[in-house]
Amino acid sequence: GAGVSQSPSNKVTEKGKDVELRCDPISGHTALYWYRQSLGQGLEFLIYFQGNSAPDKSGLPSDRFSAERTGGSVSTLTIQRTQQEDSAVYLCASSLSRGQGGQFFGPGTRLTVL
Amino acid sequence: AQTVTQSQPEMSVQEAETVTLSCTYDTSESDYYLFWYKQPPSRQMILVIRQEAYKQQNATENRFSVNFQKAAKSFSLKISDSQLGDAAMYFCAYWSGWDAGNMLTFGGGTRLMVKP
Lengths: 114, 116
Description:
The complex is a heterodimer.
Chain A: E1 5-7, E2 10-13, E3 19-24, E4 31-38, E5 42-50, E6 53-56, E7 65-69, E8 75-79, E9 88-95, E10 104-105, E11 109-113
Parallel strand pairs in A: 2-11
Antiparallel strand pairs in A: 1-3, 3-8, 4-5, 4-9, 5-6, 7-8, 9-10, 9-11
Chain B: E1 3-5, E2 10-14, E3 19-21, E4 24-26, E5 33-39, E6 46-52, E7 60-61, E8 64-69, E9 74-79, E10 88-95, E11 105-106, E12 110-115
Parallel strand pairs in B: 2-12
Antiparallel strand pairs in B: 1-4, 3-9, 5-6, 5-10, 7-8, 8-9, 10-11, 10-12
């Protein structure tokens, strides 16, 4: 399909392990975003990429979180030394260069940290 | 900082009836965009409708329409002829990417239930 894809769909991990979440944006979309959706916390912005660079990393909750984007396409969000409070749905979205036309979301990755 | 508030955590509507979901926002910007997203149990956020702040005309998309009151900073979503498939979480979102970065700011969501 032509939409945003994310993998894995679900991830269960043990506290202290590292996890990688992948996002494949819509072809031609130069902007890519990561959000976190926690129960009771709503949707929280994490990071934004324009091409391969991240002009806004202000939402990353701690230095255990990092993200990269390569080739102006696929992005990986990495969480090191996972904690139980990291359990959430991680949503990826993409848009044309500026987001005024709306952002288009993938189905999310549900992360459960035991 | 911009904030978006959805004051109705849950709403219900009878199938075929009309329902209105409320959203208010706070901003000092004059040029911005507002969105409604639908999130069914499948988790995928679906863009329902978009409004440009400098346009006075309210946006419509089939059974979905908005009532945009810029001075009051209000942006409600009306769903006409409600269908069972409309049951979902609905999120109001704000975007003003010109200076403030490119992300969306979301309200807390309204869960819509549709009764057959």
